Every structure is written in structure tokens, then in C-alpha cells.
């Protein structure tokens, strides 16, 4: 299965979503602009953007919530090791209050994987990061990461875009 995403202004992305109502395009926004995301359809709607294979998925990406995307560059020769690590991961995150969805996305081109999680609120995500379960799941991360990362990873966070109701 595939996942597709592209960045742009919310106005532009809304028009794209309106032109393709059958694609279930999810719109997200951050301080840096908007992001459109859809999955499970091999049809590429975006002229620019990124396409991924969905390697692992849990939950349903909902129309509301807080999304965190860990963008992790992985050297080509280390990709099997990285993917294996996630296949063996404990499912602890799924049991956390406020958890909505998880995706492990392998890039179709390039080396930047995306680990996407969606939460009911930013507070739920912060509670996860402060939990003992998070500490346990990430305790050996520095050692494991250095074996396959070749650039700095980065995090992008978004709120799901909710169109404001017209006020009469």
C-alpha cells in the first residue's frame, strides 16, 4: 500500500482535496504551512511531493488530532536493519491514552523514512514522551540509531486542519 504527501498553502491543498473527494485526502497545518496526505491508492495526485510504501500501520488517521512525523534518513545498506527494528518493536504506543494511528513509511525515492503517529491532542503526545513506556521503548536508541543513520533526523508536527464554520 502507498502513502502520498505534499506541502503547500492550505487554500491550494483544499482545492486539490475538493477536486479529488474520493481520495480521502487529510489536510494538516503547522507554522510552516500545510500538508496533504492520503493513502491506500497507487494513483499519484501530486505533481510534487513524496510517495511511500506503508510498511507498518495501526489505527486510522482521523480528521482531527495532532500528528508527529519523525523524518529519519537511513543509509541504503542499513534499511533492512532499520525496518527489522520496527517490525520487532513492542506495541506499547498503541495502548497509550490519546493514541490514534501509527505508520512506518518507506520512501519510494530517497532515504528519508517517516514514522508517523497521530494523537488526540498534543498533550497526549507529550504524556507519551514523558512516560516510562516511552523511555523503555527508546532506551537503546542512540546505539541502534548510530548504526544506520547517516544524517540528522528531524521532527515535523501538525494539527489536522479543520475548516472553520461560516459565521452568519
From TrEMBL:
<dbReference type="InterPro" id="IPR007138">
    <property type="entry name" value="ABM_dom"/>
</dbReference>
<dbReference type="InterPro" id="IPR011008">
    <property type="entry name" value="Dimeric_a/b-barrel"/>
</dbReference>
<protein>
    <submittedName>
        <fullName>Antibiotic biosynthesis monooxygenase family protein</fullName>
        <ecNumber>1.14.-.-</ecNumber>
    </submittedName>
</protein>
<feature type="domain" description="ABM">
    <location>
        <begin position="66"/>
        <end position="155"/>
    </location>
</feature>
<dbReference type="InterPro" id="IPR050404">
    <property type="entry name" value="Heme-degrading_MO"/>
</dbReference>
<keyword id="KW-0560">Oxidoreductase</keyword>
<dbReference type="Pfam" id="PF03992">
    <property type="entry name" value="ABM"/>
</dbReference>
<dbReference type="GO" id="GO:0004497">
    <property type="term" value="F:monooxygenase activity"/>
</dbReference>
<keyword id="KW-0503">Monooxygenase</keyword>
Amino acid at each position: 500500500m502507498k502513502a502520498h504527501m505534499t506541502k503547500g498553502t492550505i487554500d491550494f491543498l483544499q482545492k486539490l482535496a475538493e477536486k479529488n473527494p474520493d481520495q480521502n485526502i487529510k489536510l494538516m497545518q503547522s507554522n510552516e504551512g500545510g500538508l496533504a496526505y492520503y493513502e491506500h491508492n497507487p494513483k499519484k495526485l501530486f505533481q510534487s511531493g513524496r510517495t511511500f510504501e506503508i510498511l507498518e500501520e495501526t489505527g486510522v488517521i482521523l480528521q482531527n488530532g495532532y500528528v508527529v512525523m519523525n523524518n529519519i534518513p537511513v543509509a541504503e545498506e542499513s534499511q533492512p536493519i532499520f525496518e527489522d527494528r520496527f517490525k520487532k518493536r513492542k506495541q506499547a504506543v498503541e495502548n497509550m491514552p490519546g493514541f490514534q494511528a501509527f505508520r512506518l513509511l518507506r520512501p519510494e525515492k530517497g532515504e528519508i523514512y517517516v514514522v508517523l503517529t497521530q494523537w488526540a491532542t498534543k498533550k497526549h503526545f507529550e504524556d507519551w514522551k514523558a512516560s516510562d513506556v516511552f523511555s523503555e521503548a527508546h532506551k537503546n536508541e542512540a546505539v541502534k540509531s548510530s548504526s544506520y543513520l547517516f544524517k540528522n533526523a528531524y521532527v515535523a508536527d501538525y494539527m489536522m486542519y479543520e475548516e472553520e464554520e461560516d459565521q452568519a
